[in-house]
Specification:
With 578 residues, the protein is α+β, with helices and mostly antiparallel strands. Helix content is 34%, strand content 18%. The structure holds adenosine-5'-triphosphate. The site of adenosine-5'-triphosphate (ATP) has 17 residues, from α11 and α17. This is MAGUK p55 subfamily member 4.
């Protein structure tokens, strides 16, 4: 039996490969030697035995021989054969002929000689041939107000015309596909272009100084929306780029004071489009797009006041969940104090800058964590999610301890539930812009200070705070680099189901169940918040299933801290740490 013949075992496959690779001769003679050795053992055996045949077929040397045969066969098939027996001679001749043509400047087609008597005023023409494909040509034309000439108004970045490098803004069109454009309207020229198939030939008088785009690429966040179809002023509606609040745009050309060229970073492959410049959009916003100011939740009226210890009854104490603090937050916009400071403090007005310059920011492991801001309509679950997050990992996530002017109760501790301060101290914090949010409730002031947030961040923890949207501009500083997560209700049908046992907090009822009107109000408010403040939201989570929403929140926070994000450019340029 071959199995018993251990002494004649072939060297293992790996070694065989190695030795074959270093010296093919050695490997082959080794195999052949093995074959002869093995064959000698077969002489004395019964040639009719099935076992013999079995052993023979399973013997490693036979397989090795078959492999060698396959390799030889493959090599024979692969052998390269020249396409023609004279290939080498032919290629040599072609090279020499090309060399001679270039050396003798023997180019075709031969152009007729220039006439001797060209008047000085004769304009040089350029003939441009573009092959039309599915894409637009990427250029706009206009009629010169004085001369009536048809001019290339702008060449769109990334379009066919720009990529050809042959058409420039300011070039004068003379002919399109052999048809003179003299006296035609731009619309008639567009019609000729629309009718043409395949190649389009332009005869142009080139502009004397083609514009050079030396500006650096700028990225901006759209703080408003823009719909070219609804803008009667846009020079070419088809070339317009629509965008929504919060879209990140790459501004590729700012040569024109009124109309910039931009592309969305979510769609980088497409050619650019026209967008109003910062100056123009600001003007348009003032003229047409004054959106209705946001009206926060005002339906809660104080009648019966009963202190409720929201924040207790958990496994441990978490600051910033007190009922009075939460009710006060909702009313903060109504406070006259808030209004007076807010206006001098540069809070967001409905007509703010339409574009905000942004850059990519990647937090370094040694940097403090970014502040996490949760916001959403009252009752959507902002506090529930914040509480779950802190309970999930209290050594990693924490709330800031708020300030209040009310007196400390016997069971409270200064710096645990609140920082208890005098009205004067509280107001001086407001006037020195050290309060991120504040409000008045039942004659007392409540609020969260920058320092309270910094205390959490300096400890190397992630500070998670709940904020009303009208306070968003106050926290948007390079110091805190907030990442804003909007918590959104799902549709009414799902909310009715998921909020069956949920309790709403009001200042006259404790543990009141959600009514349909509450859910409807929540949905309306969420829509208004999104419309007015959507540009500030870095991430949106629909809070339907609490479990899913928590998981999404955790993952969003991780991304905010560990992955590059678009942030206002001012946060980075004024950041001494980076
Ligand atoms: N996904 C959810 N499924 C079921 N119940 C939820 C969900 N999210 C929140 N709740 C419940 O809804 C109620 C209101 O939530 P929460 O107190 O967090 O609201 P809120 O957004 O903080 O509003 P407010 O600031 O007015 O208190 C609570 O009883 C909470 O447990």
């Amino acid at each position: 039996m071959i199995q018993s013949d251990k002494g004649a075992d072939p060297p293992d496959k790996k070694d065989m490969k190695l030795s074959t690779a270093t010296n093919p001769q050695n490997g082959l003679s080794q195999i052949l030697r093995l074959v002869l050795q093995e064959l000698s053992l077969f002489y004395s055996r019964d040639v009719n035995g099935v076992c013999l045949l079995y052993d023979l077929l399973h013997s490693p040397w036979l397989r090795a021989l078959l492999k060698i045969y396959d390799c030889l066969q493959e090599f024979k098939e692969k052998k390269l054969v020249p396409a023609t027996p004279h290939a080498q001679v032919l290629s040599c001749e072609a090279l020499l002929s090309a060399h001679d043509t270039i050396a003798q400047k023997d180019f075709e087609p031969l152009l007729p000689p220039l006439p001797d008597n060209i008047p000085e005023s004769e304009e040089a023409m350029r003939i441009v041939c573009l092959v039309k494909n599915q894409q637009p040509l990427g250029a706009t034309i206009k009629r010169h107000e004085m001369t009536g000439d048809i001019l290339v108004a702008r060449v769109i970045h990334g379009g066919l015309a720009e990529r050809s490098g042959l058409l420039y803004a300011g070039d004068k069109l003379v002919e399109v596909n052999g048809v003179s454009v003299e006296g035609l309207d731009p619309e008639q020229v567009i019609h000729i272009l629309g009718m043409s198939r395949g190649t389009i030939m332009f005869k142009v008088v080139p502009v004397s100084d083609p514009p050079v785009n030396s500006q650096k690429m700028v990225y901006v966040r759209a703080m408003t929306e823009y719909w070219p179809q609804e803008d009667p002023d846009i020079p070419c509606m088809d070339a317009g780029l629509p965008f929504q609040k919060g879209d990140i745009l790459q501004i590729v050309d700012q040569n024109d004071a009124l109309w910039w060229q931009a592309r969305k970073i979510s769609d980088p492959a497409t050619c650019a489009g026209l967008v109003p410049s910062n100056h123009l959009l600001k003007r348009k916003q003032r003229e047409f797009w004054w959106s209705q100011p946001y009206q926060p939740h005002t339906c809660l009226k104080s009648t019966l006041y009963k202190e409720e210890f929201v924040g207790y009854g958990q496994k441990f104490f978490i600051a910033g969940f007190r009922r009075s603090m939460r009710l006060c937050r909702r009313k903060s916009h109504l406070s006259p104090l808030h209004a007076s400071v807010c206006c001098t403090g540069g809070c967001y007005s409905a007509v703010g800058a339409p574009y905000e310059e942004v850059v990519r920011y990647q937090r370094r492991p040694s940097d403090k964590y970014r502040l996490i801001v949760l916001m959403g309509p009252s009752g959507v679950g902002v506090n529930e999610l914040r509480r779950q997050l802190i309970e999930f990992n209290p050594s990693h996530f924490q709330s800031a301890v708020p300030h209040t002017t009310r007196t400390k109760k016997s069971y409270e501790m200064n710096g645990r539930e609140y920082h208890y301060v005098s009205k004067e101290t509280f107001e001086s914090l407001i006037y020195s812009h050290r309060m991120l949010e504040y409000g008045e409730y039942k004659g007392h002031l409540y609020g969260t200070s920058v320092d309270a947030v910094q205390t959490v961040l300096v400890e190397g923890k992630i500070c998670v705070m709940d904020l009303e949207p009208q306070d968003i501009q106050v926290v948007r500083t390079h110091e805190l680099k907030p990442y804003v997560i909007f918590i959104k209700p799902s549709n009414m049908r799902c909310m009715k189901q998921s909020r069956k046992n949920a309790k709403i907090i009001t200042d006259y009822y404790v543990d009141m169940k959600f009514k349909d009107e509450d859910l409807q109000e929540m949905e309306n408010l969420a829509q208004r918040m999104e419309t007015q403040f959507g540009q500030f939201f870095d991430h949106v989570i629909v809070n339907d299933s609490l479990h899913d929403a928590c998981a999404q929140l955790l993952s969003a926070i991780q991304k905010a801290q560990e992955e590059p994000q678009w942030v206002p450019a001012t946060w980075i340029s004024s950041d001494t740490e980076t």
